[in-house]
Amino acid sequence: MGTLKIIGSNAIRKETHWEKVSDESSHKNDLHNWKFQYIAAFSASLATLCTGTVLGWPSQITAKLLDDDLDFPIDSGQLGWIYSCSSLGAALLSLVVGPICDSLGRKLTMILMVLPLEIGWLLIIFAGDSWGGSSLEWWGGSFCVTVPLYIGEIAQAEIRGVLGGLTQFTISCGILVANILGEFLSVGNFSVACAIVPMLFVLIFVSMPESPLYLQTKGRSDDAKKSLRKLLGKKSVEDEFNEIEKYIRGETKVVPAMEILRKKSTKKALAIGIGLALAKVLSGIDAVTSYLSHIFDSTDTSLGSKNAAILFAMFQVFSVVPQTLIVDRWGRKILLTSAQFAMAFCLLATSLCLHLKLVHGMDPALDYVPVVALCLYTVAFSVGIGPLGWILTAEIFEEKIRGPAMSACTFLIWFLAFGNVKMFEVIEDVSELSVPFIVYGTVSFLAAFFVLFLVPETKNKSFAEIDKELSR
């Protein structure tokens, strides 16, 4: 390099040209090496597409169930209990999914979870069992633990943010698909369509490799290398394998459980994981989604409740796409902080408009302000805490406790989701519709500062580097 600079300006130009060629070649090699990681991540994310159809199923079939569209008797009280049991069941199941992943593996656990999910759909389709619907969310919710865990371990640091965003993207896609299909199909045919998705997932995902990190923790070095070769698209993976082995050696020392929990990095990771779970649920996304029709009806707009649900789901889907393109460029922290402030603004604006309409009346031209604000709110959620909550939770915990810790955080999300939806109704009954939005907006505002001051930047960092930063 120095010799070329001494020779003259032509040599310098030549050096610059070849550096550019080298950079382009390196970029092409990166894309080639990442190709199968994208394929594996997309395949795994079909599982959370199943979760999305499960979450979108109730909003479209409630009226049809009450009208006996599936030939079994059900009233609104029973339907309420079915939905409540769904969230509580998902919360309880999420506690055991992490340890099962550590025992059976990420891949096998995901495949096995499809069986009870399919049984739930079959109970609805053939047995006319309305309570079969309550079990759907249990098993669909389990993928919120397994998919981020799997993707986080198969993706290289440079693309972990992009691929991690697929979890929220496919959940949103599933909800959108369910809303659209539910508009045109009977409950039976709608359920058949939803039941096909898990089978497609198994057929595609069964050929994907297991997490090399998991394989090496079990002492299966040959299998870990084979998995790495497939994921990286190259024959020589010694450098990557040695990096994993070095990380695992530090993780596999026999350390008492209480000593792990006393570690500074573990305490910080748990605090961040719990904080992100609280920020996600207490921002009100579950309550807003559940009561969307009621909220939009209160604005006196011409937008029908079913159209509102589809519009809301479309905003969720399309806003995740740009998020995946910028998360590994901008970083998690700035994106999440900005999104939290945006959510707070939209929620407080919605609250103000609903209050003014109730107390003072409001210009009909302003009836669409809450609609626009809530659509922007779901964009901010889908860019920020929606996908980044899953990504960060999968990144901050060390391998030894990653499965159980993610289970605990997911349990908290599902449990709080159940309570949050119930509390929305209670708060509105004792006050007015605008009050819950004040609560959600305030929480989102405070969560922005939580992220700003306590959450580390994990962009392009290995698990070892993240753990080292949390230990400071």
UniProtKB/TrEMBL annotation:
Annotated compartments: Cell membrane
Transmembrane segments: 38-59, 79-101, 108-126, 138-155, 162-181, 187-208, 269-288, 308-327, 334-359, 371-392, 404-421, 433-455
Matching PROSITE patterns: MFS
Pfam family, one: Sugar_tr
Keyword annotations: Cell membrane, Glycoprotein, Membrane, Sugar transport, Transmembrane, Transmembrane helix, Transport
Organism (species): Aromia moschata
SUPFAM superfamilies: MFS general substrate transporter
Cellular component terms per the entry's GO annotation: plasma membrane
Domain Major facilitator superfamily (MFS) profile, residue spans: 36-459
InterPro entries xrefs: MFS_dom, MFS_sugar_transport-like, MFS_trans_sf, MFS_Trehalose_Transporter, Sugar/inositol_transpt
Name the record gives this protein: Major facilitator superfamily (MFS) profile domain-containing protein
Highest taxon of source: Eukaryota
Membrane association type: Multi-pass membrane protein
GO molecular function, one term: transmembrane transporter activity
